[in-house]
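Run log, item B.
One chain of 119 residues. Sequence copied directly from the ordering sheet:
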Amino acid sequence: MAKVEHLQTIIQRTLADIYRREVKDDKIGFITITEVRLTNDYSYLTVFYTILGGDKKKAAAADALERSKPFVKGRLASRVKMRKVPEIIFKYDASLDYGNRIEQGLKQVMNKQKDHSDE
């Protein structure tokens, strides 16, 4: 495993732990960090996440994540040895929502086929 990929794995685990144990903001709620991507020069860290809840909950969580950046960046710096602490960019990971919509659509198609075959 290359150095950046190894570091990304460590960062993802560390961030999950920081949000689970240390960030005390109810607006974030139950967050899952699905992936992190670190640029090769360690300048930027893109953190992909999912949140349970509707659009209002997601918007409130996005604001809370932005507010938590300085604290999280400091905690990350103290727990993970890096040349420099990257700027954190949060991005909502819509792939889970997309997968759920596809699953719902498939279920509807299957139910319609079943209904037609019963006639």
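Observations after the first pass:
- The chain is about 55% helix and 20% strand.
- The chain has one domain: 3-94.
Flagged for discussion on Thursday.
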